[in-house]
Amino acid sequence: MKSSTIVDTARKALGPVGVLLPISFTSAPSAELQREAVGRLERAGYRAAWTNEAFGKDALVQLSILLAATERMTFGTGIANIWVREPQTAHGAAALLAQAYPDRFVLGLGVGYPEQAATAGREFGRPLATLRDYLARMTAPTFPPAPDAAYPRILGANGPRMLALAAEIADGTVPSLLPAAFTAHARQVLGPDKLLVASLAVHADADAARARTAARETVTGLLARPSYVAALRELGYPAEELEQVGDALVDSIVAHPDPAAIAAAIRAHLAAGADHVMLMTSLGGDYATGIAQLEQIAPEVTEIS
């Protein structure tokens, strides 16, 4: 299947708005809790859901359970960690999901961070070369062969070189929690024929001051990563604002406090060139609370077209 056909099909299946399933750092939600959660999200009107991956959790196994638990929902990995499986194995698993659930699966891949490579006993090395080699090896011949099923492959990319690589060898990209200005830049680099999934942190709270505090905590955590700071500097954010975690910076990264403000932030990313916006609740928060928050804002955001 041609890349353009794969991208067009994915755009229709994903729709403009989806969710990242809440990420807990202290416990693993049971399979039954996750089945119930995606059922609730599907009934709330969301057309797509995404999951992350870390050691101790296999995103592709997780999605096989969640695809079976829903009727129409499209699922994606945001992102699958390349250090946890060999490329031919990743392709075989992804192709089987694509064959079993046609047009309901998107594979997001990324190199992640040096500590993820170290956990697997690997050297982080040169991430661009590593990811290029990984994608090239995915479709290498195997015995028995992988299922003959097409699916979109997109790359996690926040920096200019990774964006360029995604434009060259993948079907698109999924930047991580960057402002709409970055979405516009990513679209320029990718051109019109690639899939662009923007991720947007959200925090809905009737108490606006409390929401702003929570949003600032999220941004402060992101700024602990030098690569994230570098991406913001490329966008022109002054060092003083990054150091002070200013209100304008916080507001450009975390949509808050109410559904209307969140919907406006989604529309800003779509207007900047995103095909799909993935909503992310607080990292490390309670799973059930995150699902409830996504349900709460659904009436406002699922109507976006």
UniProtKB/TrEMBL annotation:
GO MF terms, alphabetically ordered: oxidoreductase activity, acting on paired donors, with incorporation or reduction of molecular oxygen
Luciferase-like domain: residues covered: 30-276
Record's keyword annotation contains NADP: no
Pfam families: Bac_luciferase
Superkingdom in the source lineage: Bacteria
Keyword Oxidoreductase tagged: yes
Keywords: Oxidoreductase
Name of this protein: LLM class flavin-dependent oxidoreductase
